[in-house]
């Protein structure tokens, strides 16, 4: 019995330690907020947060107030029972910013930093034997090859040329695996065509269509999609070196239905450059607008980015273009708001209610990601996902998250 009680107490103690560890890990070391925005951090009994004036801040309901009242940087200290310092939180308060919601469909071309490994296969050598040069090297699908021997790899052609120049001698391959740079050695296999191969399938670019969410005039930056672009084979976020944003012409719309999401099909042939893409994050793609006229927007229609406390469940509208004309407003319903969510792009649950849009698309379809959401004259977010079993419903990301991402490149 005593042994059982000891075990029970140990399990209880470990569960408490685990709970505190999870909460502490979720407190960020860097925090960017808008002027007047609530700062939310989950805390537990004994986890104290102090400002620079050494005053312990009230954290009831997990909200730290007043820190965002003044633009600039400040520091918060997180401690356990005011005795053990855990970490510092650097807070950067940025001024409220106005943006122009866009809603135009555009084409995306991304070029990777290095080449992305999307598959592996055996190689048949000129001796008719099967080889796996990649075996036991540590390289995996989703990794990015950045260098072979002393040659930087920027395209599939670079990789093919460099491997062929090896004439079958071992090559040193430098690659990125889960944000860590690693190196391995591989022996290229000579094929019956006298080519040398590593047995790796790679890709150096990606293309598609999506919706431009907003344009921020002061920095000439744009945000789009509301979600990152992932590789179709590995489902990993593509690590880009550069990218192009170009106008597109809509060719066809496939209406969505339960279990079968619809899509917008477009072409980027003979279209106009909009700007350059420099960031592909899980909250969207971002870059600079080089040709503002190509967006065909009314620069007088600036609006504030709504703070989360200003967003309400109920009626709102989205802007999107479905017929190669100017974007139109369509009614939606914001059904749920997840105000403390900073970790993914599912900030709000939304529902398409406009009969005109439902007639055209059946709800949210591929290509509408990034459609800006407007409520009470403010930009509140962008469409990101559709619920496959109910295309009338989907998710949206907060506008403040997208703008903060854009500010990092602005």
Low-confidence stretches: 58-63
Q: What integer value in Å does the Rg equal?
A: 25 Å
Distance between the termini: 65 Å
Helix share, percent: 10-25%
The count of helical stretches stands at 4
CATH first level of the largest domain: Mainly Beta
Number of strands: 30
Notable traits:
single chain; 410 residues; mainly beta; Thrombin, subunit H; Pdz3 Domain; 3 domains; six-stranded antiparallel barrel; 4 helices
Give the helix/strand layout.
Blueprint lengths: L1 H25 L3 E5 L4 E2 L6 E4 L12 E2 L7 E9 L3 E11 L3 E4 L3 E16 L2 E2 L5 E2 L12 E5 L2 E2 L3 H10 L5 E7 L2 E7 L2 E2 L5 E2 L2 E17 L4 E4 L15 E8 L1 E6 L8 E5 L5 E9 L2 E6 L13 E2 L9 E7 L7 E10 L10 E5 L2 H7 L10 E4 L2 E10 L2 E9 H9 L3
Parallel strand pairs: 1-6
Antiparallel strand pairs: 2-4, 3-5, 5-6, 7-17, 7-24, 8-11, 8-17, 8-19, 9-10, 11-12, 11-13, 13-14, 15-16, 17-18, 18-23, 19-22, 20-21, 22-23, 25-26, 25-28, 26-27, 27-30, 28-29, 29-30
């Amino acid at each position: 019995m005593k042994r059982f009680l000891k075990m029970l107490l140990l399990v209880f103690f470990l569960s408490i330690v685990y709970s505190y560890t999870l909460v502490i890990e979720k407190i960020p070391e860097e925090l960017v907020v808008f002027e007047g925005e609530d700062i939310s951090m989950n805390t537990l009994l004994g986890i104290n947060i102090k400002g620079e004036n050494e005053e312990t801040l009230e954290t009831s309901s997990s909200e730290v107030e007043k820190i965002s009242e003044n633009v600039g940087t400040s520091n918060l200290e997180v401690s356990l029972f005011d005795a053990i310092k855990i970490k510092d939180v650097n807070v950067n308060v940025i001024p409220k910013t106005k943006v122009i919601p866009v809603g135009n469909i555009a084409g995306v071309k991304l070029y990777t930093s290095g080449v992305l490994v999307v598959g592996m296969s055996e190689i048949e050598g000129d001796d008719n034997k099967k080889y796996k040069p990649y075996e036991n090297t540590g390289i995996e699908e989703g990794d990015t090859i950045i260098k072979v021997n002393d040659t930087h790899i920027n395209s599939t052609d670079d990789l093919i040329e460099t491997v062929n120049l090896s004439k079958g001698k071992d090559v040193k391959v430098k690659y990125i695996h889960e944000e860590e740079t690693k190196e391995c050695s591989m022996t290229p296999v000579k094929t019956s065509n006298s080519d040398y191969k590593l047995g790796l399938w790679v890709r150096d670019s990606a293309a598609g269509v999506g919706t431009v969410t907003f344009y921020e005039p002061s920095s000439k930056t744009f945000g789009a999609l509301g979600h990152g672009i992932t590789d179709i084979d590995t489902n990993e976020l593509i690590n880009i070196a550069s990218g192009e944003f170009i106008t597109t012409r809509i060719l066809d719309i496939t209406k969505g239905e339960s279990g079968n999401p619809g899509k917008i099909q477009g072409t980027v042939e003979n279209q106009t450059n909009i700007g350059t893409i420099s960031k592909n994050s899980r909250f969207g793609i971002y870059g600079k607008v080089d040709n503002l006229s190509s967006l065909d927007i009314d620069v007088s229609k600036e609006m504030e980015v709504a703070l989360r406390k200003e967003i309400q469940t109920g009626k709102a509208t989205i802007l999107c273009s479905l017929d190669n004309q100017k974007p139109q407003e369509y009614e939606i319903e914001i059904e749920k708001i997840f105000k403390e969510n900073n970790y993914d792009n599912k900030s709000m649950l939304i529902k398409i209610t406009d009969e005109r849009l439902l007639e055209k698309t059946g709800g949210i379809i591929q290509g509408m990601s990034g459609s800006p959401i407007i409520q009470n004259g403010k930009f509140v977010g962008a469409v990101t996902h559709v619920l496959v079993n109910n295309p009338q419903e989907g998710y949206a990301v907060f506008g403040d998250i997208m703008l903060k991402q854009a500010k990092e490149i602005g």
